[in-house]
Protein 1
Amino acid sequence: MLLPCACSSEPSTIAADPVEPDQIDIIAAFYPLQFVTERVGRDAVAVTNLTPAGAEPHELELSARDAGRLQDADAVVYLDGFAPGLDDAIHDVGATAFDVTPFADLERATNSLHDDDGRDRREAGIDPHFWLDPLRLAAVGDAVAAELSAIDPGRAAEFTANAAALRTELEQLDVDFRTGLGTCASTELVTSHEAFGYLADRYEMTQVGIAGLSPDSEPSPATLAEVADFVDAHDVATIYYEALVDPSIAETVAAETGVGTAVLDPLEGLSDESAGDDYFAVMRSNLATLRTGQGCR
């Protein structure tokens, strides 16, 4: 029985493939969770991505029909707080949910502009973008394997082996990033949106976000001036923005400082504008973009 849900009456946003009788039916909140669940589960799972291509998970709105799908699935793989509409629906319908938060090692995001005494000028909330650090994503892959094993113990060895293979690939990606970004002229990473903090921390870079954690927030004139001063003072050559986000903020600072712009993909989802058809392809495209923008040898 479908329980009451604070959902819209619009048609379902979920485009689900048929689930075979021997498959585990999984709903993933957004693309990185779809990717890791598919890689760990392989043919044993049918994974439906709840966030349509080109949409923002933060803005996800579910229909009553979507809520029914949540209730019917074997598990909903999600990140608590990232898509509030989904969090509410999971609670309302009593869906079987697997929150990856405890395994993602989330940290509080900070803007790297400092007062003279070293204090951060602005401090944001918890940064959810753990998947931009390959090793954090590997840890979540291991946790997904354990969850799938609990649902289907007979295939536990298969899930564990798949997660180990994924970890090996992600560890190689980590080596590629560490090597590729190890000889850069600049380690100052100026972005329109503070989505790249984990990536910056892992590879010994400093992220300065113009708009903070939310891509929709509007920076004040004072913040724009601070970032422009930072760009000038640190000889920053490139300001990065996202393909699906209005580039005007990044372009404003770039025009003010006379530097270039480039696109980094935060990989919240894939679209026709993505520079690849899976997580690894887009991350390697990001690496190539960073090597050019940061003057890496």
Protein 2
Amino acid sequence: MSTIKQFKIDIDKSKKLLLAAVVLFCISLSLANPVKGTESILISCLNRDKSVTVEQSTDESNIQNNFATNKNCLAVNTLAGLTNQSDPLDNNNQDVLINSNSALATLQENAFLNQTSPITFITQEPRSGLITYTVQENDTLSSIAASFGISTYTLLWANNLKEISIIRPGDELTVLPITGVLHRVKDGQTIGWIAKYYDAETEEIIAFNDLPANGTIQIGEKLIIPDGQIPAPVAPKATYVARTSYSGSGTGVSHSFPYGQCTWYASQKRIVPWSGHAKAWLANSRAYGYKTGTAPQAGAIIVTRESWYGHVGYVEAVKGNWVTFSEMNHLGWGVKSVRTIHINDSVIRGYIY
């Protein structure tokens, strides 16, 4: 009786080895010549007097892209499940079914991931035109410039701003594609003159702006000057009117400041109820309800950063891009003088109106 049972076991093992070989052959055949539409793989495993059938259907693209990746998993698991059973008559031995289902589930998962994972293409083409940027909360001029890969001065020049200018959420700024200058062509200007004025290269201006080879430009045309620099303004010769003493009547109601200092002089020209060094005057004046800003105006107090204590003066006149103001202690203690500087001079911190 044991001989008959052993003979039956050998026959069952032979059947399973043959079935494994058929499965491997089917996998290879399906990879070499995938069938359009639906591809079905039937794995039938004899388990005592029952048969288990597992069917996996995929479309042509999933067969080509995913089935090849998992062919070894399916084949090895199936073969191992068929050959490693200690007793084919054991009802609890389900290796074939488990391994086959696992391999086929892997195929399904990979196919799903491939279908639901779109490919994102990021263009590396450089920007060549102007854009308008809307200022967001917590933005600064330097952070905006850095995010676009340009210098802060490029952003300032393109929008007629100064370092002390204030930007607010919702403001719109013109942003150049590269570090440089935006120039509008005026009558009589040539490409050579523009290049020299901004200390730039003629060939680069022509190439970047897609101009004719001879550099022909039109009045009113906007040009981007790569790596261009706004030339520093040439200030007119300052006019100084020096005195050893000051005979002004003063306001009579200002806070008391030490004689001979810039703060004393400014408080004689305007009512100054606050105290403190000149560098604190912008903040201190606002605390008293005074308005401040960055635009020069005759009769305003100008605040500069020309020393550790700061400096103040009295604006006498504004003409074009130049502001003239009187002051004390610029040339020496107790000495009044008058000078003219450009409205965009970096020493200017602001004005008190």
Protein 3
Amino acid sequence: MPAARYWAVIPAAGVVRRMVASLPKQFLQLGKQTVLEHSLDALWRALHLEATVLVSEGHPVLASIQANHADRNLLRAPGGSERCHSVLNGLSALSDQAEPGDWVLVHDAARPCVRQQDLRKLVDSLKQHRYGGLLGSPARDTMKRAEDGAVRETVDRNGLWHAFTPQMFRFGLLHDALQQALEDGYEVTDESSAVEHAGYRPLMVEGHLDNIKITRPEDLPLAEFFLSQQGRL
């Protein structure tokens, strides 16, 4: 049996909402590179990827990123109305190259601080797994469920995890799970939720808490600090 290959899909179709900026968060500068380039660089340093698909609309910054990384097999696919549609578009762009048993990593464009050791841990933990799993961290804080701003109940945090990316699954399984979830009208919040809906139980792999997703203005200097601590700035 030939060794499974690795591919990546990067949803990068987000728009400016909570960030006070003229550019989408994935195109903001962190040192000499954009947030997106830091996210890409983390994957490329940790893994040999057959190809990486950027799922985004035709933003001018993308052409510059592709030109700066011409040595990578960097493909493009159009963004969808929701993240799940974008990821499915990215998978479809690989459908004539990837085998069902290959691995595909889906990583948020706005998670530039993922550590090399966590990426390798994810891959090592899932090498022999039948379908896949994701990086995350066990909940440490007291968890509250609120309604209209008021606390409705305190939720037992035992067994609760914060879900991160990358999330890594067998290519064919993830493609079929996303399609089925959309056909069923199931709300897909991440790739794992689609796989869970298909009846599987993805493996949680513990990673570091500095794998933050940039969503607010205060996240940018925090990400800069984490990257500096990792020696990546």
